[in-house]
Amino acid sequence: MIIIDSPKKILFIVDNFIPFDSRVWQEAKCLKEVGYDVSIICQHKDNQNKGLSVEEGINVYRINKSVKFGGILGYAWEYSYWVANVFLTSLKLKFDVIHTANPSDFYFPLTFFYKMLNKKIVFDHHDLCPELYLSRMNAKKDFFYKILKWSEYLSVKIADIVIATNESYKKINIDRNDKKEDDVFIVRNAPDLDRLKIVKPNIYLRKAFKYLVGYIGNMNPQDGLDYLLRIIKIVTKNHGLENIQFILMGDGDALKDLKKMAEKLNIEQYVIFTGRVSNEDVNINLSTVDVCVSPDPSNPLNDYSTWCKIMEYMFFAKPIVSFGLNETRYSAQKASLYAYNNDEKDFARKLVYLLKNKENQLERGNYGKRRLENKLSWDISKNELVKAYKYLFIK
């Protein structure tokens, strides 16, 4: 890996919790490792200390975010308050680069201010916010959609370089946001190997059920857990697989509604909602399950996005069932069986087939493990990140 000659100060800004945002935390640790002086401004979580803490040599500033009160006006207030709070915090710090991780795309007034002061700007493009709005709200391309496209465009144009998660995002930044191809770098999502470890399966869980299925990830409206619950009903009622347990790990805005939905579908006996779990529990559960699922449906956001959970499943050598989204196909390839997009019955058929075929499970799981190690590891991604920063300072 390239080691820099003279240290520069980088300030990450992320509207999330650190270290739970594994992508940003991996990027920060990588840049610290090669010699940069790294700080992060992020949200304060209830069980974390406010203000400055030093973690693995990185200065982490945790600040409050306004409480949501719903609707478009609530969203506008939330992000106005957040960006203002970030700006006031940033004024107290010394840095050469601002590295903003979206969502949201509303940091552009802050980045424009610092661009005028000759600071370097990096836009780390994790989500397509216009498409997120369409998918999450089931909305049309209305006035608010146009505002989001405009804010994305400004965020990209102000940035000296853009970091994209995959080829689809890179193409959008070139075609839609008029960015030069040389100024867009792909740094793919990859599992954090500091927290993942294959361990001995939980024999008590294994003895209780013939079939075990795992999910880890966000549980927001666009993430497809409602699809998964309906699929579970098809698997247990129509296909008769009743000696089965689905372990669903994660948290999000839709979790409460999903629990109610499971009761309404009369499938709660087959489902464990763990909420956010420790690294230890993630390792035990994903080492124990037979098959993992990625129920993200085809929608304006998901059709272009890459999921960290896919690579995490591959790390544990677990076969996957998913819908046939382009970037999921690129990541998993033969590690997954692909259902027709948004076809719950076909997804259920594929899942039942894989659960009943141990040889196929082993073949797909081993393929995914090899592909991750050879093509999708964080060692590959972090080299691209370091190259992007080297280019940033000679640009």
Describe this structure in words.
The protein has 395 residues and is an alpha/beta fold. The chain has helices at 22-33, 71-90, 108-115, 129-137, 143-158, 167-175, 203-208, 225-238, 255-264, 279-288, 308-315, 326-332, 344-355, 358-375, 378-394; strands spanning 9-14, 37-43, 51-55, 58-63, 97-101, 120-125, 161-164, 184-186, 211-216, 244-249, 271-275, 291-294, 320-323, 336-339. It has an 8-stranded mixed β-sheet with strand order 3-4-2-1-5-6-7-8, sandwiched between helices. The chain is globular, with a radius of gyration of 21 Å. The relative contact order is 0.11.
Brief rundown of the structure:
By secondary structure, this protein is an alpha/beta fold. The chain has helices at 22-33, 71-90, 108-115, 129-137, 143-158, 167-175, 203-208, 225-238, 255-264, 279-288, 308-315, 326-332, 344-355, 358-375, 378-394; strands at 9-14, 37-43, 51-55, 58-63, 97-101, 120-125, 161-164, 184-186, 211-216, 244-249, 271-275, 291-294, 320-323, 336-339.
List the SSEs and their pairings.
Elements (H helix, E strand, L loop, with lengths): L8 E6 L7 H12 L3 E7 L7 E5 L2 E6 L7 H20 L6 E5 L6 H8 L4 E6 L3 H9 L5 H16 L2 E4 L2 H9 L8 E3 L16 H6 L2 E6 L8 H14 L5 E6 L5 H10 L6 E5 L3 H10 L2 E4 L13 H8 L4 E4 L2 H7 L3 E4 L4 H12 L2 H18 L2 H17 L1
Parallel strand pairs: 1-2, 1-5, 2-4, 5-6, 6-7, 7-8, 9-10, 9-12, 10-11, 12-13, 13-14
Antiparallel strand pairs: 3-4
Helix pairs in contact: 3-5, 4-5, 8-13, 11-14
